[in-house]
Amino acid sequence: MSWGFLRDLLSGVNKYSTGIGRIWVAIVFMFRLLVYVAAAENIWKYEHDEFECNIKQPGCENVCFDHFFPISHIRLWALQLIIVSTPSLLVVFHVAYRENREKHNQKPYRNPGKIDGGLLCTYLISLILKTGFEIVFLVLFYKLYNGFKIPHLVKCDIRPCPNTVDCYISKPTEKMIFLYFLVATSCLCIILNLSELSYLIFKHSIKCNLKKYMKKQQ
Amino acid sequence: MDWGALHTILGGVNKHSTSIGKIWLTVLFIFRIMILVVAAERVWGDEQDDFVCNTLQPGCRNVCYDHFFPISHIRLWALQLIFVSTPALLVAMHVAYRRHEKKRQFRKGDQKCEYKDIEEIKRQKFRIEGSLWWTYTSSIFFRLIFEAVFMYAFYFMYDGFRMPRLMKCSAWPCPNTVDCFVSRPTEKTVFTIFMIAVSSICILLNVAELCYLLTKFFLRRSKKAGNSKQQPNHENKEETKQNEMNELISDSCQNTVIGFSS
């Protein structure tokens, strides 16, 4: 089980997405998943080993690292990728349900993958959930680490550190660059989701109005 | 999910590329991505562990390393490869869109559609003309821009392409100016120069492909213009013949009428 599993899942979602949805999938693959696996993971690999405090007191480094990094950036990033991709599965399940119904000849669909009726509601819900999760994670990042900056030095005075001790974080600039990259791609994905939402609502309302107009004419 | 997934995605685009585009893709995967994964990552693997400063002051090594390497070479190359590969997705999306339209026509039973089945549509190779030409050319243009930007960023950040053996650091909390030694500087310089050389080759290939596409475009346009000029001459000949026929017919009619009247 690895990121390949998520990749396969999302490839399945791609089939039933709109054009904007496919651009969203491409951005998640190329600029988030691939960058995470190929570059970002290695930066945070030895973050604990390379976290150094100006003290020989045993346990002080451990306690300070745990205080300043309750959950590592890279783990939060991985959680974000997984949770943000999951609402798309609702669409896959709904299409599978439709195909199942068709198989048992209960209700024949012209095209089970076409985004209309109940599937449209599911798709809209998945978009709202995706956007919501993205915003929640961005806020979480901001609140946990007091903004998107990573300092060179943090001052720690938790027991068993005897006094206020200087602790140095490894590769803070590189980590900050990738953090900004993460924020930028998240914002881009939020914008894409909102555009897709507006596009679908607009398209559907025009269709409804046209139908009403045709009925009136008759 | 790794570089193999990128290979699968770009492999699909390869079918619709020009020959130079196929060479570019081969160079990208063999001489850049493979070298990065198989060799370069090992060379830079211990970069911070083996970055040694001549001081016992805790934190000095971390701060000096961060000062001299704001972003590691390896990560910059990985980002460069990702950004440079992305424009090919535009072409992949355009091809997918065209296929989708053809499938829609086929399903509607459009008589204009010349395919026998859906499998044939999936296997079809699209020619680079019309709107696909514009998408393909824009993707090459963006590739060139990204390559150039990353090469400049590299040069700007590291003051050239050489990795020095020794760096002098006086950032706080280092007490004075401290000597810091980089691990494997020669090997890193060799790989840096190699990657820069292959980037330059890729830039040249992209420029050649761009020139080829533009030349083909202008040649096609001049052919079309040439064809449309020839057609009026052809039409004139036809008209002249018709006029002669009409005169003959009218002459013969007149003779017949005169014959009757007399």
From TrEMBL, chain A:
InterPro entries: Connexin, Connexin_CCC, Connexin_CS, Connexin_N, Connexin_N_sf. GO terms for cellular component: connexin complex. One of its GO terms (molecular function) is gap junction channel activity. It holds the Pfam family Connexin. A connexon is composed of a hexamer of connexins. One gap junction consists of a cluster of closely packed pairs of transmembrane channels, the connexons, through which materials of low MW diffuse from one cell to a neighboring cell. This is Gap junction protein. It comes from Furnarius figulus. The lineage of its organism: Eukaryota, Metazoa, Chordata, Craniata, Vertebrata.
UniProtKB/TrEMBL annotation, chain B:
Keywords: Cell junction, Cell membrane, Gap junction, Hearing, Membrane, Transmembrane, Transmembrane helix. GO terms for biological process: cell-cell signaling; gap junction-mediated intercellular transport; sensory perception of sound. It holds the Pfam family Connexin. The chain crosses the membrane at residues 23-40, 77-97, 132-158, 191-214. Residues 146-213 form the Connexin cysteine-rich domain. It is found in: Cell junction, Gap junction; Cell membrane. Residues 42-75 form the Connexin N-terminal domain. GO terms for molecular function: gap junction channel activity. InterPro entries: Connexin (IPR000500), Connexin_CCC (IPR019570), Connexin_CS (IPR017990), Connexin_N (IPR013092), Connexin_N_sf (IPR038359). Residues 232-244 have a biased composition (Basic and acidic residues). It is a multi-pass membrane protein. GO terms for cellular component: connexin complex. Residues 226-245 are annotated as: Disordered. Belongs to the connexin family. One gap junction consists of a cluster of closely packed pairs of transmembrane channels, the connexons, through which materials of low MW diffuse from one cell to a neighboring cell. A connexon is composed of a hexamer of connexins. This is Gap junction protein. The gene is Gjb6_1.
